[in-house]
Amino acid sequence: xxxxxxxxxxxxxxxxxxxxxxxxxxxxxxxxxxxxxxxxxxxxxxxxxxxxxxxxxxxxxxxxxxxxxxxxxxxxxxxxxxxxxxxxxxxxxxxxxxxxxxxxxxxxxxxxxxxxxxxxxxxxxxxxxxxxxxxxxxxxxxxxxxxxxxxxxxxxxxxxxxxxxxxxxxxxxxxxxxxxxxxxxxxxxxxxxxxxxxxxxxxxxxxxxxxxxxxxxxxxxxxxxxxxxxxxxxxxxxxxxxxxxxxxxxxxxxxxxxxxxxxxxxxxxxxxxxxxxxxxxxxxxxxxxxxxxxxxxxxxxxxxxxxxxxxxxxxxxxxxxxxxxxxxxxxxxxxxxxxxxxxxxxxxxxxxxxxxxxxxxxxxxxxxxxxxxxxxxxxxxxxxxxxxxxxxxxxxxxxxx
Length: 401
Hints:
This protein is 46% helix and 12% strand. The chain is an alpha/beta fold. The chain has two domains: 87-244, Rossmann fold; 245-396, Orthogonal Bundle (Helicase, Ruva Protein, domain 3), CATH 1.10.8.60. The strands form five sheets. Strands 7-8-11-6-12 form a five-stranded parallel beta sheet, with helices on one face. Strands 3-13-14 form a three-stranded mixed beta sheet. α12 packs antiparallel against α13 (342-364). The longest helix is centred in the C-terminal third of the chain and has 28 residues, at 310-337. Residues 1-11, 16-41 and 394-401 have low confidence and may be disordered.
C-alpha cells in the first residue's frame, strides 16, 4: 500500500496497490499462515496480523477476516480464547448486523477449536430464514417415519446428524417459533435431542452449537417473542461484531484484500486512487462488509483504466445515496411545513426506512427475492407481502449502473 492513513482514517498518498499478501513492509500485511501452524494460544493473541485466516468449506485457506482496528483485534483474541479454553459443550452466540461476517466468525471459532484440541469434525449450517416454519422443528431435531403427513421416512436432523467434535451453526435463531425455542433450550442445556414422533426417545448431541443473529433479542424478550430462559442460556459466551461504519479505519485494508481477489478473478491489475478510498470512507455502508465487497467487485469489473478514481466510486454509490436522501428529505419537508404531524412523521419514517431496506436488499440481490428475504432476515412470504404493501415494482428497484 502506498500512502499514509491519517488519524481520521482518510488516506494521504497516491494509491492502494494490487496486493499486500506476502509483503515484507513491517507487519502491515495480510499473512497467509496455515492455522495448524498457530498452535500456541499466546502466538495467536499476540500476533500483529491484520487478517485472520479461515479455512474454507473444503479445508483450504479460502477466507480472511480482515481488519487491524482495535475492535477486530479484540475479536481475534476472543476467537482464540474460545478455541483454546471453551469446551465443545459450550454454546456460542455471534451477533451483528447483516453483512458483518457472522458466518466467518462461526467458522473461525470452529477452526481454532479444532486447532487447539486437534479435533476434526466438520461444521454444518442451517439457516432459519430459508425454512418454512412447519419444517424448522424437523430440520433441527429430526423426525420418525409417520410423525406427520408426508414423513415417509425417518430424518436424523441437523443437531443429531453432526459428527462428534464438529459444530452446528444455527443461523438467525430469532426466526425460530416461540414454541420450538423451548425444545432448543433443552438441546443446548442437556445436549439431548428428541426427534418428532419418537415417543420421547432421547439422543445425545456431541457437536458444538454456534448461534448467530442480527435480531434485537432483548426487545424480542420484552415483546414475548423470544424466550427469556433461552436468551440467558445462549448469552453466556458471545461475540458482538461491529458494523463497518464503526470501524472505518479497516476499509483501506479490506479494499486492498478485495482488490486482490477480483483482480485475480478477472485477470486484471487494477489499483485504487487515494481520493477514491477517501470517498469510500465517507460512506456509511448500511450493508456492511458484504456491500463493500460487492462494490469493489463492481468497480474492478467495470474498470478499464488500471486505476479506480473518485468519479467511479461516486457513480457506483450514487443510486443508493439518492434513494436514501430523497425519501428522508421529502418526509422531513412535510414535517417542517406542518403538513405532517409528529406521530405520522414518525410512523411514515419507519415505513420509509423499511421500504428503503427492502429496495436495497432486492437491488443488492439483483432481483432474487429468495436471497433478498434471506439478507433481510425475513421469510419469502413476508417479503412478498411487504413488497406488495409498499407498492415496490420492478422499476422501483435501482439496478447497478
